[in-house]
Amino acid sequence: MSEEAMTRFPVPEVESLPEDLQERIAEEEERAGFIPNVFEAFAYRPRQFRAFFGYYDAIVEESPLAREEIEMIIVAVSGANDCLYCVVAHGALCRIYAEDPHLAEQLATNHRTANISDAHRAMCDVAVKLTARPAAVESDDIERLREHGFSEGEIWDIASLTSLFNLSNRMAQFADMRPNSEFYTLGRE
Q1: N or C: which end of the chain has fewer CB within 10 A?
Q2: For residue 2, is pLDDT > 90?
């Protein structure tokens, strides 16, 4: 690892972690070619690691949303929260899944002017509203998503992802999680 996973708390050695966490981290390293720093950072608290990634996996593996839509939501929310780690890491995934080298920066800085469909703009509008002004979300927001063709399951997952990444963004900022240098260039070519 070329940089610390986080600066405000100790980063455990992977070899010292419970076996299931070591296996999960090894799987991610095999898939990505490196260990995303969020894995080592969240490993500081193994039970919380399991809960966080269990919830993340449940959404991503079962969601009727397309993977590019999942990443679009995460990037828009993380941009609204000024979360460097998640904007950079999920920005890379957004570029890869959407096959668009410019989309992540557009979503992170201002999803309303991003080069996306009206349905995706509505999706990001609701996610950012739930992030910035959760008490302002109304039935009309949900109805707007329905009008754009989102199913009940997709609408639920828009809120689930938004909520999970509000937690993730806050923990990344609190712990000062640092993006891996590899993320900055993924999906750019």
Answers
A1: C
A2: no
